[in-house]
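Figure 6 in text form: structure in, sequence out.
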């Protein structure tokens, strides 16, 4: 059975680049510290606990993809994903976007006080897709390519860069799907 991915509309496509419009979403969010990978693992464990029944209804909630990580400024990001990680002072914000069948009012309350349910506004993103491992040097190279694309298209960044990972850790490196996202003014 396929994992749900958020719906989006492609406003522009050029080679490996896209400009996408995402609708408003609902997410579960935690704060975590450490490196990108350490924070992602710690946040993932807390959020997985919530969706696997760690809530007032003991209800399981389906996973969605991708896992998204963001650095810088503590700005919230508006993206669809089960995990969104954004840099905040001294740490990261890690998010799972809830399946589209849920609204903020219909989700069960998390049992763990570190898990918060949040509304994520509709947003537009410039995106570049790549395969393989999302190593820091490769991510930086893709960020540079995406910024160059944005400059050619006269797109203005509206927030920090995000890294989206779509595959579970057991996926062979050469089959992994990754993306770099930059929110843009609409």
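Output sequence:
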């Amino acid at each position: 059975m396929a994992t749900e991915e958020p719906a989006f509309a492609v406003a522009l496509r050029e080679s490996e680049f896209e400009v996408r419009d995402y609708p408003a979403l609902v997410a579960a969010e935690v704060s975590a510290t450490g490196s990108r990978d350490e924070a992602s693992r710690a946040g993932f464990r807390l959020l997985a606990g919530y969706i696997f029944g760690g809530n007032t209804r003991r209800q399981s909630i389906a996973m969605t993809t991708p896992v998204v990580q963001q650095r810088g400024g503590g700005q919230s990001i508006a993206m669809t994903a089960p995990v969104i990680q954004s840099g905040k002072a001294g740490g990261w914000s890690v998010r799972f976007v809830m399946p589209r069948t849920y609204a903020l009012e219909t989700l069960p309350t998390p049992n763990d006080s570190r898990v918060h349910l949040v509304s994520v506004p509709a947003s537009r993103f410039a995106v570049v897709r790549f395969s393989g491992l999302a190593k820091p040097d490769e991510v930086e190279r893709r960020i540079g390519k995406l910024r160059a694309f944005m400059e050619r298209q006269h797109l203005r960044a509206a927030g920090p860069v995000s890294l989206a990972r779509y595959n579970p850790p057991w996926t062979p490196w050469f089959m992994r799907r990754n993306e770099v996202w930059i929110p843009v003014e609409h």
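Caption detail: Confidence is low (pLDDT under 50) at residues 72-84.
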